[in-house]
User: Fold these one by one.
Assistant:
Number 1:
Amino acid sequence: MKETNVENLISLSNDLRWQIGDEFHDNLAEGIYADAAEIVKGSVRNKKEKGHLRFDAKLDQILTSKYLGFPLMFLILAVVLWLTIVGANYPSAMLGSLLLDTVHPFLKDLGVTVGLPVWLNGFLIDGVYLAVAWVIAVMLPPMAIFFPLFTLLEDFGYLPRVAFNLDNLFKRAGAHGKQALTMSMGFGCNAAGVVATRIIDSPRERLIAIITNNFSLCNGRWPTQILIATIFVGAVVPKAWSGLVSLAAVIGIAVLGMGFMFFTSWALSKTVLKGEVSTFSLELPPYRPPRFWKTIYTSLIDRTLIVLWRAIVFAAPAGAVIWLISNVHLGDLSIAAWSIDFMNPFGYLLGLNGVILLAYIVAIPANEIVIPTVLMLTVLVTGIGGGAGAGVMFELDSANATGDILKAGGWTLLTAVNLMLFSLLHNPCSTTIYTIYKETKSLKWTAVASILPVIMGFVVTFLVAQVWRLLS
Amino acid sequence: MEAAPKSACETCPQYNAEGLKKLGVNLNEADFVVALAGNPNTGKSTVFNALTGLKQHTGNWPGKTVTRAEGAFQYNDQKYKLVDLPGTYSLLSTSEDEEVARNFILFGRPSVTIIVADASRLERNLNLVLQVLEITDKAVLCLNLMDEAERNDIEVDTRTLARDLGIPVVATSARYLRGIPELIQTVSDLANGRIVCKPHRIKNIPPNIEKAVTKLSNEIQAVYPDIPNSRWLAFRLLEGDNHVIELLRKGEFVK
């Protein structure tokens, strides 16, 4: 009975639709606008004479100008990065010495005192605890600086201007202009960037944004870039220039990432994700003075602590795995040594080595632990002193000492450059992969988003290695 | 961080914030459900935070809120669950965020809908306001960002506006918690039926279309006497919105 009624309604609506013609949508929209105009006429008064430019408009003329827009964007990015890099040094060193040099031996002794078996003590303290401590020492300070700075820019209203500047490039790449916003979020955390793609209406363009978000260097990868650039790239120029050159190298990698993002978006939209670019309107909101302390507070609570907690949750089991593969032996060699030997030839082809490849496999849960894992495994393989024993992650107090270990492990400038490239171009961390799956609900696209960057990483590092060796 | 809502005229009962308790995410046994709708970047999340005491992240760019955030507050012993919807310019197209907002106002049957609008850009914001008023008749317009409007020398006569729209209008600057006590009081009055709205219905429609809408809307009322938004449903059917047709077949509108 009800069902026939519903069908009657639907057929009645179909008949009526024929009668009123196909302009219903426009008519309705016009009607709404006409009503709105009438209402506003009766209740809103604008006392200010129109015609002269307000502060907002003047600022927009500069920030979104044809010539100054891009340089200013890179300048702002450089300043934010510089503040992050320089500012994070000291608290990182302090946290490192506290958690690694003071608390770690204390816990180890405590384990002995309460009578933990040696293997369990090693597993818990050298494996799980050290991984967590490293992540906190390395990640917390840069995050506590980067996120608030980013949030201040966001509250001020700069992000939509970035989107405005980049819109034309995105259009040419066949992607949605709002991808600029999700890309910017990705510079903080790729998982957050992937969630933010919900602002893109078209499923095709949203997929492109999700798949290419990984090309935004995330928070877990900045420290790797900065450390390696400082040790190897900064060292090839006179000391006075090394800071500036390392910073330029890091920004270069970030910009290269944006290049890959545009290229991949373009390639996807020309092949598997073909379609029209959808138009959209993006409001340039008024600039609003950020509420400084409130912003600092919320970005610490909302972003920094949540991201840090996530990293800790993933780092703990990874630390356990690292300790296990270095201490469980198959025949003469530990599993780690065995895998490194196995992967070395392939690593050589890519201008990397087995240690780096193994580190990237172990560090799938969290990018932050790549460098400590690399150090630990290098010490294991080369057998040089300075480390703290098999499967023990550690941080060296100075970049020089880190460099010495890596050089002893056979590292060259090529290894460093390719590690920076591979850090940019490899699979997303497991949190991001899981988020991609939750957002796309598709195993296929999750697989594409996870594997595509690794393949690109292999290709790019392989090419760089071959050309490099040919030239030198 | 924030001071509790306070104002000069503390003798006035509507300023008395003692009745207000921010409950954060404690959503148990809400007496009323309140939806928070509005254009992107009008400060919905800021209003949400001011009411619930939560620290939902806010940002100065349109589209910041992509999921529904929920929180709660208690006022005069009644509990209100507050749902922060994604910002939309309209409810007429079919993008994902618009659907989240539209479906919630339709099927979530909120006791009250707070429509947040940017006071400096009222005309553009009214597009959504008028559409929401076609769907629900228990709504309050939260005229937010009044501080910016004042800075730009824009004056809004809230009483005329309220009369034209047929719903209460409250001027606020949520960032500075101005107007929040009045907003809470108005929401409470609406929820308890102390204020009855007579919402504006879209008028400037060509006569032949208006006739078709009325006819269809009357038929819908004949089939579903309880439906509060038959006119809006008629709009959607005339537009040929497959999503709504499907929902109608499934009987979603009569729950």
Number 2:
Amino acid sequence: MVRIFFQLVLICSILLWCFSPIIAQNQPTGTLAGVLLDSASNQAIVGATLRIEDHPYGTYTNTQGRFFLRSLPAGQYSVLISMLGYTARRVAVRITPRDTTRLTIHLREQLLQTNDVVVAANKRVQAVQDVPISIATVDQRAIQQRNITRLDDALRYVPGVYMARDQINVRGSSGFSLGLGSRVAALLDGFSMAAGDGGDVKFDALPMFAAERVEVIKGAGSALYGSGALGGVVNVITKQPTEQAEILFRAYAGAHTLPTYNEWRWRETLPFIGGADLGFMQKVGKLSLLLTGGIKKTEGHQAYLAVENWNILSKIGYEVSPQTTINMVFQHAEETRDNWTFWQSLRFATQPPASTNLNERLRSIKTMAASDIRHTFSNTVFGVARAGIYRTNFFTFNRGTTDPLINDIASIAYSVNAEAQITALLSEVTVLTAGTTINYNFITRSPIVVQSSLNNTQTLGSLYAQVEHKPLAGLTLTVGSRFDAEQTTSLSQSGLIASPKFGASYALTPTTTVRTSFGVGFRAPSLAERFAALRFGSFDIQPNPLLRNERSWSSEVGIQTGFEFLGEEWKLDASGFWNEFTDLIEPRFPTATNPQIQFQNITKARIQGVEVGLTGWLPNRVLGIEASATLMNPIDLNTNATLKYRTRYLVFSRLILPIGAWQMQAEYRFQGRFDEIDNEIIQVIPNADARVNAHIVDARLQANLAQLAGVPVLASIIGRNILNYNYVEIIGNLAPTRSIVLQVEVKL
Amino acid sequence: MNSKLQNSLLPCSVESDKFQKNARVHHSFFAFMLVTLLAMVCLLSACNSGLQPPAELPPTQIAGTIRYVGGWPPTVNPITRDSVLNIRVAAFRDFPPQNIVTDVLAGRAYFTPSALSLDSSLARFVDASSYSIIIPDNNPATEIRYVAVAMLVRSLFLVPASWRIIGVYTATGNQAQPGTIRIIPNTLHRADITVDFRNPPPQPF
């Protein structure tokens, strides 16, 4: 296994070098220097990112807010300056030979959620205006303010996204799949985080405390990200150390309130919620270091739903030379939880079925080690080679013991990924991004798969290329494709899977951009979906090696515009989308003729919809407003009925009321009920048809003690579902009831 | 480089000073009113508090006592290799039923205990035990035409052939003539059953 891993790294490194025959040329160079200041206070902004667009040059502001970019080839550049909490700016500069170009740049504070700069759309840093698809972000400030500790919690606040238990739904892409497979690719700093057995996403394995931001691409993204990006891509980007050392400590404690109804009161005392995270990051000379770790515990809002977990993450970067940087990421997370499946009945919604073994717990251990090498070959060519291995291990055990239960749910699986990517500026207006990837999945121990199939491995290899061209001022065209091949041992090899994409964005005015895109996605069935023989509740899931790839295409037209209203800046983003899916793999529940659960290629579906988002301030910045609405029409083309486990309406709104050092926020989320579910499941899950529209209201109050008392502390009271609205995110599972926590963050 | 690149991502200007104190008060009031309005909308939309436990009515159920006579078979029959793995009572809407598994999964029969789990069983190797079957409100029945005690003899829980009928509810005492129960909602219906291992009933499937 280790040998395979290093072979992949070697292959990728060789490919990277082969892709780049262009040798650095001796060109006259100059220097860019300057200072970055807050437009209101004129104070230095520390740790902001400056990146030369379409070139491999970038830096961060130092502890005095100053920046230097030396040895820049002479010419004219566009510099993109971004910093969390500020509106990004783009500045044009001219570098003259043997001279220093000096700049003083002001950034304006921005309390609302913005996504001015994105990475995931085209695997490089870009201004969002140049990206032809819908993208949303959740930044570290929103993560902190909402007390978000898991990726799924972060995604619940993204317009057009909702969770169906373990499934990320981007514009209705996913249904209910018993925790196997994901129709949205999840990445940590570009490394895939899909489990080697089930292809699913372990949400606690993506450390939110270490996240700079979470980017969500809406729509098929297989042209760059391959299998899994059927409905979208989620990329968690970790913090980047700067020269200023930073120690960050965050702790929270609170409780769920008791259920509204006596029938649901399963205990007399308030269930505890708490946790703490500690992090350190700094760049010293050529070495940069990010270390974080955390521990969390919740007693749950239902009986038999207690969860304890801990995690660590380290990211070490080293500048081998001005042209070459190496990054190494190690992440480990462990979670132990009660093995809750669904409720006993609506009458006893906080209790598991009477036959449940209340001593049974589920432990999952996730470990990821990855490395990338970034190299600048010339002024116009740079590349990255990355490789990583992701190990997942889960098993059930009886409380008080550590031994796995015999013949129960358990698996140890590996997913090895490697990629070599090259980005070349072919001309001033044309950028080529190309690369190759390989993904190798295997299971080393698992009573969940048919034993005769335990030796099955899954290999996916690909080549991809994409060209971005700017033929006219304001117009960006993107065209590309990816070609994948999949081989699962014991099965015949798939044919070549082509995933083309096309996109265009056009700046009608400096503040208005229109966009359109078309992309194809696919998802290869995971080893578990094909070979698993496991238990869901009291039912057996039977293997189905004959599963075919899921396919999708998505298209979108959209407009983003900034305008002045009531004397303040507002931003409107509107889009219409049309997604088609074929061969969707869904569990087929027991019927009168087939008393087993089996994954089958059942569904052909169409989801059309519109999405509108608006952000802005009331006059004098007294109140910030974010609002979005997504209307969808998910149709099962086989039955002409509404697609199962999909909602038609999503609404999200947030109000921000800053009052000096205080900030109040209120959020309202609406999610329409699932119109359709599997009728057969009503026989399995009592009251599975108990579903309602969800109205969730969160509220929080934050005090900046640095302004109030001169200590670097942010203190918050955070209430979730404060109206204690009772709803289900997935059938037979009462969603979290009201919780209130006190959170303290200390930044040194 | 294109001139478009000179455009800032969003207009970025210093804080305007055009708003006077009166305007600030006016706008704050406006913001307060808007927040209040939105809060009211949220509260009104969520005021029904969503799901709630169903009203506490007596369940519609069939219950009774099972009396075992004739001696239990051995834990594992040395000839047939059958085992006494699980004892259930099933109530079928139709007679003759198709089979116990298919009818339960199709909603045409009701099982006890309610959980479909191998771990759940009525008491085995006893002289008598009680049982009850809930007829769920979302899948009601007007008549139950066949109530039977079933024994799981092989571990393949969802395979119909793994089940044997060992006792039948009858109003006449003749196990070949199953009794019919007319179901009244929210009412307990008694149905006592005798299992005679020496005189098993006819297998209906």
